[in-house]
Amino acid sequence: MTGEIPAASTARRYSKTMRHDFKPAMNSNLDAVYGVNAVKEALGVRTVDYVLVTQGHRSPRIGEILSACRKAGVQVRFAPRMALERAAGTEQHQDVVAVCAAKSYDDLETLVAASDKPLIVALDGVEDPGNLGAIVRTAVGAGAAGIVIPGRRAGGLSAAVARAAAGALEH
Q1: Which of 131, 124, 133 minimizes the C-alpha distance to 154?
Q2: Which range is least confidently modeled, 28-37, 45-54, 58-67, 69-78?
Q3: Distance of CA 118 to CAs 108, 109, 110, 129, 147, Å?
Q4: pLDDT band at 161 (very low <50, low <70, confident <90, very high)
Q5: Residue 133 to residue 3: CA distance in whole angstroms
Q6: Which of 170, 111, 113, 88 is closest to 136 using CA atoms?
Q7: Residue 138's CB: how many other CB atoms inside 10 A?
Q8: Which of 10, 78, 95, 155 has the CB geometry, 3.0–4.6 Å to 54, for a possible disulfide?
Q9: What is residue 168's DSSP assignment?
């Protein structure tokens, strides 16, 4: 028995690790939103399944998110940093990931009907999620009712766009 681990303890350890592992399937209706501002804004707008926080991480900004989760009745799970990296798909998650309903697209008619004089930003060929997020953040700051993006040759609404938009995607 030198160096061997009994099968029962291996299975127990495996299940503890796997329960925090999340990566939405391609056809899933769930999305992983990461970053402090993006998660904070998503809590008030989207249906959030649960929030992952890095074990042992304490900060006032994470504390605000934990308070908002308690208030909204959203489950909080503390997980190792690697589990958050898998869920977010990046190391740049700021120690918090929300697993929530995917962001939906609206029709152009809905955007136009939303305001008397709507400001609508039309984009073409913006493929980089960082650039698209920055444009979303700027457009929301300028009071835009919405952004029109083409179906092809353009970045979609992803977790990277949500993080780059710093929560503005939820407005």
Answers
A1: 124
A2: 28-37
A3: 11, 11, 11, 25, 11
A4: confident
A5: 50
A6: 170
A7: 13
A8: 95
A9: G
